[in-house]
Design a protein that fits this description.
The protein is built from three helices and four strands. A four-stranded antiparallel β-sheet has the order 3-1-2-4. It is elongated.
């Protein structure tokens, strides 16, 4: 007697990670910026909180393109950046 195995359930593909820039500010001051990966903006913000990189204030999340990522040095990714670093090293003129 031959027994057939049931087909394995297809594994869901992992969502693709993208880079996001999150700026944190209050009504009166900039608290920091962050370049971080996530599956979406909500996940990127969750990652920031889990890693202790959320300084408070209101976050504003922007997705980054491949072109953006080519010009962002790796040492600026995954850590909280000061206003001066955002201006000097990211050319953040819109902050």
């Amino acid at each position: 007697m031959v027994t057939r195995k049931a087909p394995l359930p297809s594994a869901k593909p992992k969502p693709k990670l993208k880079f996001y820039f999150i700026s944190f500010a209050t009504d009166y001051q900039f608290l920091g910026g962050l370049v971080i990966q996530g599956t979406d903006a909500k996940d990127a913000l969750r990652q920031a909180k889990e890693k202790g990189l959320h300084p408070g204030g209101d976050p504003l999340t922007t997705s980054l393109t491949a072109g953006d990522m080519r010009r962002i040095p790796e040492d600026l990714r995954g850590r909280l950046l000061s206003h001066a670093e955002c201006i000097a090293r990211l050319a953040a003129r819109r902050i």
